[in-house]
Amino acid sequence: MSDNNRVLVVGGAGYIGSHCCKALAAAGYRPVCFDNFSTGHRDFVKWGPVIEGDIHDQSHLADSIKQHGVIAVLHFAASSLVGESVSDPQKYYHNNVAGTLSLLRAMRQAQCKSLVFSSSGAVYGESHQGLISETEMPRPVNPYGRTKLIIEEMLTDFHKAYALAPVCLRYFNASGADLSGEIGEDHDPETHLIPRALLAAQGKIEDFAIYGEDYDTPDGTAIRDYIHVMDLAQAHVLALKYLVSGGAGGCFNLGTGRGYSVRQILRQVCVYTGKKSPFAVKPRRQGDPPVLVADPARAKAILGFVPQYSDPSTIVGSAWRWHQRVHRAKAREARQTVLSLV
Fold it and tell me: How many C-beta atoms surround the C-beta of residue 41 within 10 A?
């Protein structure tokens, strides 16, 4: 690959962004991480330069794009907790929508026209029959999903007016960890099912709950399409290659086309940990549909995307190995701290 291979990864120190940086480097690109480290991890930045900055700083973004000669931008920076988006929508419209507008202005200023955007299956809302395709009318039911849809519409308008070439990747349930154990899922607070179940199995949290066991599904719990973060990362590489080769852009579901229930995932957690995850059963959360499963046909046909790691065993196994590694490291640090105080 030529020297013209630098990509600005906005939010590159986060869970999905860092995995994408690793995948980009493996594919011959040079990821330039741009992050304010409000939720990202400095030790997750391993595969290229790092720039500390905020997405609302248009001048800093534009200068970074120009100084590094980037050919495209991958945009992961966002607030992403659904419940918080309901209680504090101002934060989500400011960080997600206004932040993206700042990035788009910076890209215009720096004359960079290719963008891969981290969107979400949350744009579809709650009422679906069968697999969800990109032709389905988006009907988000919470501010988080609405901000993602507004951004997608912004990108359509920028494409028409300014020749921006955007790809919007609508994730379903991102999960798992890097198979080598270098990086993984480490949120604060942690809200996702699999890491919370692993923590509960280890006795590290006492408030683990599943929401609803009276859905119209085989075991009464909600069914979701879980996609391994390494597969997500590869999809971003494919989307980037599609854009730089002259692709027209568009929206693509990132899922597997197969769903698993909460109880099925908990059984897999038990297989790896050897322990059941104690949980409380709470009422369904507003806006949670019984089943959300992607139709991934368009991403396969146009991007060539075929998930390789998104079976429940690989997802849970990789997450478990990451959690074991993190907790061993924390235990060593605690012992060293105690020894230093003696």
Answer: 15
